[in-house]
Write a structure and sequence with these properties.
The chain has 182 residues and is of the alpha/beta class. Helix content is 35%, strand content 16%. It has six helices and six strands.
Length: 182
C-alpha cells in the first residue's frame, strides 16, 4: 500500500498565527489540492494528521472543523481527489495527550489504521513539531516551505534534524515523487 500523511494547515491550506477558524478562512495553497488528486490517481492513500488546538482554546467548534474539512473534500472531489482519513488532535499544548504533535500518537494511529509500516511512509509538514513527530513515529519527515516551513528550515540544524528533505510546496514534492516513479 502506498500511503502519505500530510499536515493540514500550512501544507494543504494557508496557515495563520490567528488560527484558521472558519470555512471562509480555509484557503487552499495553490497547487496543493491538485497535488493530492495526483497522488490519489497514482494509487496513494492520503491521510491528514493535524493539531487543532483552536478547539481546546475555544476559537472554533468541532462542527466548524468538520465544515472546514467538508469544504476541503468538496474542492478535492472536483479534481477527482480525496482524503482517505482525517486525524486531528483537539487538545491544547498543556493537556499532555499522546496525539498532539510532536508526540507520535496520531501518526501511530494512522499507521495502525492503514496497516502500514511507518518507515515506508512520508509525513509532510511545515513546522518543527511535524518533523519531530515523524521522527518519533519512525516515519520519513518531509518539510515544505509553505506555512511556517521557511522559518522551520532555518531551525532544523538547531534541533539536530539534518537530512530532512525540503520542498517548496506540496505540488513540488508530488512532482518529484511521481517523476521518480516513472
Amino acid at each position: 500500500m502506498k500511503l502519505i500523511i500530510l499536515d493540514r494547515d500550512g501544507v494543504i491550506n494557508q496557515d495563520s498565527d490567528e488560527y484558521i477558524k472558519s470555512p471562509d478562512e480555509w484557503i487552499p495553497i495553490p497547487g496543493s489540492l491538485d497535488a493530492i488528486a495526483r497522488l490519489n490517481h497514482a494509487g496513494y492513500s492520503v491521510a491528514i494528521a493535524s493539531n487543532q488546538s483552536g478547539i481546546a482554546r475555544g476559537y472554533f467548534s468541532l462542527e466548524t472543523l468538520a465544515a472546514m474539512n467538508v469544504k476541503m473534500n468538496e474542492l478535492l472531489s472536483q479534481l477527482g481527489g480525496r482524503i482517505d482519513a482525517m486525524f486531528f488532535c483537539p487538545h491544547g499544548p498543556k493537556d499532555g495527550c499522546d496525539c498532539r504533535k510532536p508526540r507520535p500518537g496520531m501518526l501511530t494511529d494512522i499507521g495502525n489504521r492503514f496497516q502500514a509500516k511507518l518507515g515506508d511512509v512520508m509525513f509532510v509538514g511545515d513546522n518543527i513539531n511535524d518533523v519531530k513527530a515523524a521522527k518519533a513515529a519512525g516515519a520519513r519527515p518531509v518539510l515544505v516551505r509553505t506555512g511556517k516551513g521557511e522559518q522551520t528550515v532555518g531551525i532544523l540544524a538547531e534541533h539536530r534534524l539534518n537530512g530532512v528533505a525540503v520542498y517548496d510546496d506540496l505540488a513540488g514534492l508530488v512532482n518529484t515523487m511521481l517523476e521518480d516513479n516513472k
